[in-house]
Amino acid sequence: MKQTTNAIVMIRPVAFRMNEQTAVNNYYQKVLDGLLPSTVNAKAQQEFDTFVEKLRAVGVDVIVIDDTLETDTPDSIFPNNWVSFHENGDVALYPMFAENRRQERREDILDTLEEKGFEIANIMDYTSAEEDGFFLEGTGSLLLDRANGKAYCALSPRADEELFIEFCEDFDYAPVIFEAFQTVDGERKLIYHTNVMMCLGETFAVICADCIDDKKERKMILDNLKTDNKEVILITEAQVNNFAGNMLEVRGTNDKKYIIMSASAYQSLTPKQIAQLENHAEILSSSLDTIEACGGGSARCMMAEVFLPRA
């Protein structure tokens, strides 16, 4: 199984803003005072377009789909939470915590992929769990080590343990379960998505071990990564707050590997961390300040990787 892909889906926002429904447990979101909603959306579109240009310039196959004004979907820019695409032709649809995020799931996006020559064999639909109040938000909640058959999940209100284990059984992954925390007003609170504090590359892993308060769990996670011969690059909680955990490794022209992150993530890294990462792939960063502030997510959240076979 390949760990990285050349093809990604990205959703261009039309009414991006801070989503009040997700702010209850995403402590990375901020209100940008004094900006009209139209200004926030225009800034987000500008950041999005520049980001897409940079990815395409290095040969990443970016499939851009416009969001629609028919639904109120302020977070549509983060498609990796509702869908994942797998090498065997399976597509997984995930149950979402925020009610207005459930409207992001669009069948026409799957149609577009098929029109572009990707093959969809089967749809695994976990969304009925929403009715019972259980959630698992795609590759935000679960980090897939495709090559080693492991899935990492930091449990939270948006990542239910039983649902995660069901996913692992369906897709043949060994579950690696833990809890990750951040300090909010002096209190330790669960981090809403695993991919904020951890990134899995082919030959490296970026992780904030300080977020894993349980020492046994921390050791277990680090042991798993080292057993799989990944160079572990540790980041701090302050760097997590700058979205340094929210990276993704993708492939460009001639299968060249790139580590994608935001400008704020890159600026938060030390020269040593940058050198460690550059041993594995070239770094590509882009400014996503508005998207990060209002959305509480960053570069990785904006990219839904497509591993589907091509016809």
Plain-language structure description:
With 311 residues, this protein is α/β, with parallel strands linked by helices. The strands form 6 sheets. A 3-stranded mixed sheet has the order 2-1-17, with helices on one face. It has a single domain (7-305), classed as 5-stranded Propeller (L-arginine/glycine Amidinotransferase, Chain A), CATH 3.75.10. The chain is built from 9 helices and 17 strands. Helix 1 (37-57) crosses helix 9. It starts with 6 loop residues before the first strand and ends in a 5-residue tail after the last strand.
Question: Descriptors for this entry?
Answer:
Amidinotransferase, transferase activity, L-arginine/glycine Amidinotransferase, Chain A, transferase, alpha/beta, 9 helices, three-stranded mixed beta sheet, globular, Amdntrnsf_FN0238, 311 residues
Output the CATH class name.
Alpha Beta
Gross CATH architecture: 5-stranded Propeller
Overall form: globular
Q: Average pLDDT, to the nearest integer?
A: 92
The total count of helices amounts to 9
Rg of Cα set: 18 Å
The CA-CA distance between the termini, in Å, is 18 Å
The counted number of beta strands is 17
Q: Spans of 5+ residues with little confidence (pLDDT < 50)? A: none
Q: What's the SSE pattern?
A: EHEEEHEHEEHEEEEEHEHEEHHEHE
- How much of the sequence lies in strands comes to 15-25%
Alpha-beta classification: alpha/beta
Protein name: Amidinotransferase
InterPro entries: Amdntrnsf_FN0238 (IPR014541)
Keywords: Transferase
Organism: Flavobacterium reichenbachii
